[in-house]
Amino acid sequence: MVPMQDMDDLLNAHPFFAGLSPRLLEELAGCARNERFDAGDYLFQEGGVADRFYILRHGQVAVEVKAPHAGAVVLETLHTDDTLGWSWLVPPHHWTFDARAVTLVRAVSLDGVCLRGKMETDHELGFHLLSRFVPVMGERLRAARLQMLDLYAPPGLTPPA
Amino acid sequence: MDAAAAAALADRLTETAAAARLPASLTEGDPWRPRPFRIDRWRRDLSDTFTVDLVPLDGPPLTFAPGQFNMLYVHGAGEVPISISGDPDQPERLVHTTRAVGQVTNAMKALRVGDTLGVRGPFGTPWPVEAAFGHDVVIVAGGIGLAPLRPLIHAVLARRERFGTVVLLYGARTPEDILYRAAVTAWRGRFDMSVHVTVDRATGRWSGPIGMVTKLIARGGFDARDTMAYVCGPEVMMRHAAQALIDKGVAAERLFLSMERNMKCAIGLCGHCQWGADFVCKDGPVFRYDRVAARLAQAEV
């Protein structure tokens, strides 16, 4: 168990939370806890209840989908300092994909039920959290679109623009 | 075209070249006449990509600067511009990596050791190497865009002590499509260079990153405010990589990329490779980003 002050410092040091006031960091720390996953462990699986998100402190996580005949297809990998999961923000709060630890992963998880409760009444917290999640979503969407273009495919295989 | 007509055309173009005051290096020899080279080594890199090592049948080796290209003439098939991908400090072997996508490159793919090719060149602007002395170096490659960057990597590593941090960020389609795998592995094993490879999709045993090369840029590992960056890959990838570098803090005038257009004459006369106000063959293929950024965003220029 990490003491509360340490959790404040830990969140404060993470780029995702850069610039948050001490009060908001304290609110977040109240919903946070340290987690560890061994390589091969699932952080969450498709369809499961999305009750948290993660900030990765160390390691690599594969976001993947199980497909018939193809096993698990990895959509992207996330790494140290990346943020994982926003389904906790969007009803009905179910995970859309699997997240699997590729290496040893150390992360901080933030409890979604706890956070949603606070955001209902603390709109400042809600604003600052959402304004940090939207750019992450935008970046993931951009990356997904570029991957969809299959830019390095041999000419002729490239899908029409 | 018969021989006489070809000769007449060559004469006319040579006159035009003189009138256009081309650099002496181009007009000295005959920039229109391919020199014969023998294929000394042929190897397959990827399913559609191969590398030839060429040695001259007569005359001195062809010295070049990283980023330049040659016109390779395949007898009976035609001529194509191909960037040079060997070590500029070892010009006695002229190395070209080619993807077989058209008639000429497919004919080239069918050649073997001992066959001859015609070579005109080298042409075009180089990657500025000395301009990066004292700075960090970030090299961003996408797909077979690694080929025109390899001479730059050789040049940088040959003068390693002149640079700060040296980073290679490489995006490939799949782990099986990693070009120069042995070289990339060797670079990765060096203590004075960091190499990160990401793929768009992976099958089997790949345990590395999956995602766009722009994500590797965002992760950093270099001093962006004191960095020279060199980017080569498909145009869409270069635009996004350039933007990611600028978002990271790299100055637009310290960012270079290599354009690909349909080069024919290779000395800025015929106009096939015209790109806005520039001819890619002589004003490029390497351009400074801030000079072409506006044009890059436009379609059909």
UniProtKB/TrEMBL annotation, chain A:
Entries under InterPro entries matching the protein: cNMP-bd_dom, cNMP-bd_dom_sf, RmlC-like_jellyroll
Superkingdom of origin organism: Bacteria
Signal peptide start and end residues: none
CDD domains assigned to the protein according to its UniProt record, in alphabetical order: CAP_ED
Span of domain Cyclic nucleotide-binding: 16-116
SUPFAM superfamilies named among the record's database cross-references: cAMP-binding domain-like
Protein name: Cyclic nucleotide-binding domain-containing protein
From TrEMBL, chain B:
Signal peptide: none
MF terms in GO: oxidoreductase activity
SUPFAM superfamilies cross-referenced by the UniProt entry: Ferredoxin reductase-like, C-terminal NADP-linked domain, Riboflavin synthase domain-like
Domain FAD-binding FR-type per the UniProt entry, residue ranges: 32-129
CDD domains named in the record: sulfite_reductase_like (cd06221)
Cited Pfam families: DHODB_Fe-S_bind, NAD_binding_1
Protein name: Ni/Fe hydrogenase subunit gamma
